[in-house]
Design brief:
Blueprint lengths: L2 H22 L4 H19 L2 E6 L11 H17 L4 E11 L3 E10 L8 H12 L4 E7 L3 E11 L9 H8 L2 H27 L4 H16 L3 H13 L6 H25 L9
Parallel strand pairs: 1-2
Antiparallel strand pairs: 2-3, 3-5, 4-5
Helix pairs in contact: 1-3, 2-3, 3-4, 6-7, 6-9, 7-8, 8-9
Length: about 280
Amino acid sequence: MPLHQRIARWIAARRSVRERARMEACGHLDELLAYLEHRYVGEAQARGMVFRLEVDPALAASLPGPLGVLGEVLVGLLDHAFAQRSARVALHVDVVGDNARVQIVHFTVADAQHDASVDAALIALASAAMRGVGGAVHAEHGADAGHRVIVELAFERPRPWAQIDVDALRSTLGGDAALREVIVALDAALRRDLADLERLLAEPGANALQAWLHRVSGALGMAEATALSRVGLTLERELEQGRQAHLDTAIRRFADDARQVLAALREHVGPIGYSPDT
């Protein structure tokens, strides 16, 4: 191989390593999409092309995930689309499945004019990479729609931080004495319900679980843990469609977060004389 080709390959490999590291450093999906938009808007302008990133407003903020692998796959697909010299290239990000625990997202790389016959090896590589992180890839072709490659990946929603506005609760109740009384009552109620959860999950049907979620969400709302309370009420509504494995998992996670709230309540009351064993 001529020296200039070896140098070009070495430079490309170094660039690929740096880019992969940059994408892996993204803390959440928003950052990765911002990076891709900046990269390809500039490239499109330099080539006299048009690049668009369109993101579904329903996409949750700050989704974590295997962003290094996803970014590498999307870069490979976008680079290939740009190499076809299409007038327009787009990346569409659509939420196609959504519940309290997971969002399923489609990343569609589309270009207007494309020779699909050269894509088999690229699609195979992308598919193998995404299968390794629980995703999938498939391609679509149409005379009107052009060429589209869809990357599908499920993202687990970030767990809501179990924050409690104790100052607001104290102010609403009128002082530390009233705060202590309410926290003692909340502690007793939450402990009973949290201890009873596994029994309810082992039973068929959704009515008892819905009542449990309603009680615990109400207690969390009284404790000013409003974000977590809303999660519980959402799960209660989703149970109207019946029991599903992913909902049982989400309810267990919700219970774990409620236990964090309970522990935080005890910490706040401890200095003013409350013992959780009382």
